[in-house]
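Thread title: Can someone regenerate the structure for this chain?

I was given the following input by a collaborator and told the matching structure tokens would be attached. They weren't. Posting the sequence so someone can regenerate them.
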Amino acid sequence: MDKRTFRNAMGKFATGVTVITTKVETETRGMTANAFMSVSMDPELITISVDNNAVMLDKIKESGKFAVNVLSNEQQKISMHFAGQKESNEEIDFDTINDVPVIKNALSSVVCDVDRTYVVGDHTLFIGKVMDLQLEEGDPLTFYCGKYGSHQPVEYA
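Best answer:
Regenerated them for you:
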């Protein structure tokens, strides 16, 4: 199979949109990602997948910490900014939890210490031990077949 067909097949899985953030010394970095999931409830662990060619890979390794910020449907511009899809002079508003930058007003921000890493194919999986989090109300930003969207609740009979 060719890579484009594989990528199109993976795009059929609707996801939420996150921005992974970290800080090295005084430099705050972010990266849009949808490769995120919970791993364990006890202990609380999550995983993210980062391309081995991404600048963010070395930043997370160096800091040893990261946050996963689940974006609301009002934060598409933030996602596009960190995906390199939109040049913007707008400053991104960050809060800080445990000295890790988090996106203000994200639906959730999950702050982790790197627990372990696994190089798998062309990506590195970071297992994060959850140290803290914050939650906000709102509707999620979604991603499906290369396009942003919003959550459509289904009424049950």
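The first strand starts at residue 15 and ends at 16.
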